[in-house]
């Protein structure tokens, strides 16, 4: 299981120290939750702060755009290794994918809990990653929604049947227990914020998230 660490609930008054805590622990991605206060009921940070974070971290950046018009912002996040936008946003899906790929960045699409997975099946051939939200996007520290697990299983099955290559990632309420549920259902990557950064023993928590299969 790959691990993506979300900095959303970090202490931003000392973000270098927060990122230092995970920098030698083989975290696969640093997950940046960009929120515009319109697509989701919260504002987090934008490209400037994200670039500053990029400067102090060697971990590949995964940008999760929770904004109404992702196309307007994609180029500003050109330093990311992956850019994920929402299916429910106002922009044309194919145009957003094309723009991300034109920057040689991996393209991910995310769905909120109330969006059925069938709606995105037509664009999976061109996508590198699907992000299943297991909380309503907007805030860290929420409870994992078990009823979303069927989407992971469905996607895994669809991917194998159709010989597709995208990664399945899960975001929201991830801890050592819910990470196993995701893994057993077919997820490749889990995003964790609160579980990692509020842990007393971050190394142990990351190992627990990763599971015994590495
Ligand atoms: C929620 C964000 C998540 C969030 C996860 O809208 O997309 O990435 O930071 O936080 P935890 O791990 O606390 O649920
Ligand atoms: Zn996220």
What is CATH's topology name? Answer: TIM Barrel
Average pLDDT for all residues:
97
Give the end-to-end Cα distance, rounded to a whole number of Å.
6 Å
Q: What percent strand?
A: 15-25%
| Unreliable runs | none
Tell me, what's the shape? globular
The proportion of residues forming helix, as a percent range, comes to 25-40%
CATH superfamily: Aldolase class I
Query: What is the CATH domain class?
Result: Alpha Beta
Radius of gyration: 16 Å
Reading the helices and strands in chain order gives EHEHEHEHEEHEHEHH
Give the biggest beta sheet.
8 strands, parallel, barrel
* CATH hierarchy: architecture: Alpha-Beta Barrel
Structure description:
- This protein is of the alpha/beta class and 214 residues long.
- It has a single domain (2-210), classed as Aldolase class I (TIM Barrel).
- It has eight helices and eight strands; from the N terminus they run βαβαβαβαββαβαβαα.
- It has an eight-stranded parallel β-barrel, surrounded by five helices.
- α6 (176-185) runs parallel beside α8 (202-210).
- The chain is globular and about 40 Å long.
- The chain binds D-xylitol-5-phosphate and zinc ion.
- Residues 6, 31, 33, 64, 171, 191 line the site of zinc ion.
